Amino acid sequence: MINKALVQLLILASSVITTLYSYADDTPTFDKQVQELITQEELTGITWATIEDQQINIGSFGYANVSRSEAMQTTHKMHVGSVAKSVIAMGVLRLITQGELSLETDVEYLLSELSFDNPWKGTSPIMVKHLLAHTAGLDNIRMWQFLSTSPSADTPLSDAFPGEDETLLKVRFKPGTQYVYSNMGYTLLAMVIEKVTGQRYESYLDFELLKPLAMNNSTFEFVSQVGDKADPLLAMGYHEDNVEQSAVAMYLTSAAHKRICPIKLFHSLSSLFSFVIARYYFTKMP
User: Fold this and answer.
1) Separation CA 50–CA 27 (nearest Å)
2) Which of helix, strand or coil describes residue 259?
3) Which of 5, 45, 160, 167 stands the most exposed, by the fewest C-beta atoms within 10 Å?
């Protein structure tokens, strides 16, 4: 199921990009092409935005909630998954520019309550720059961190790294020498933010990044489509065949959860582009 979905999204992304270049000056045609692609790929609903000559064009198609026959609108919100990592990185960069952190900050020392197993600790400890660039040598994710009903919205980030599992934070190669994508690494960055600021990472990022960008309909706080954290504008999630899946809390929520209004995201692209440039620089560092 996962592989099929990924293939569909890759095909859709490739097709949309091709269509964008072909019909950038013809918004109605572009919208029609996107709608056809969504139907072809059997996706439930989507909201999109394009930028041309500093003009933002937005659109939506499909359903935000199939069972209620609720059409997707450009004002609907959705979880953006690992795009949250980009904003977490921006929050870390902000702390660096303020002198609260540095790229060379020793994360193993800063988060000494965790059980790191780094054979190169004496000469090559895990640093902030390694977590930012996915070069810390850590594993990506354990299935129990991802598929569990135990965590709640208020579960501490440290619960994702129980001390009794001595292999959980095992460093597989000398930090800074190889790239391996790591959800655990970005959860550690969220813990770094909390350690330095003395507040929950969600509150820090909402106030220091999203609020100045006027992204008032976006948040790092956990929200769902149901329950006491429900947001009526949050689009429902779906598996294949339109099987509903409401959002649930995860141990590694900092690496993969963020509710966002897509329109505001595109109003903030200049800041995100700045992050991309910075991240490229980090990956080139030894």
Assistant:
1) 9
2) strand
3) 167
Give the global pTM: 0.77
Q: What is the DSSP letter of 219?
A: B
CATH 3.30.70.20 for domain 77-286, yes or no, is no
- H runs (alpha helix) in the chain: 2-22, 27-41, 84-97, 107-110, 128-132, 143-146, 183-197, 201-205, 253-256, 262-267, 269-284
pLDDT averaged over consecutive 10-residue blocks of the chain (286 residues)?
44 48 59 82 83 82 91 88 89 95 97 96 97 97 83 87 90 97 95 96 92 87 87 87 82 60 43 37 38
β-strand partners of 245: 237
Closest CA to 66 of 86, 36, 83, 42: 42
Residue ranges covered by each domain of the chain: 1-61, 77-286
| Cα–Cα–Cα angle for 21, 27, 33, rounded to 5 degrees | 70
Nearest by Cα to 160 from 101, 98, 114, 111: 114
Q: What are phi and psi of 184, to 5 degrees?
A: -65, -35
First-to-final CA distance of the chain: 38
CB atoms within 10 A of CB 33: 18
Query: Where does 4-121 show beta strands of DSSP type E?
Result: 45-52, 55-65, 70-71, 78-79
Neighbours of 9 (CB within 10 A): 12
pLDDT at 17: 47
CA atoms within a 13 Å half-sphere pointing along the CA-CB vector of 212: 8
- Pull the structure tokens for residue 22: 């072909």
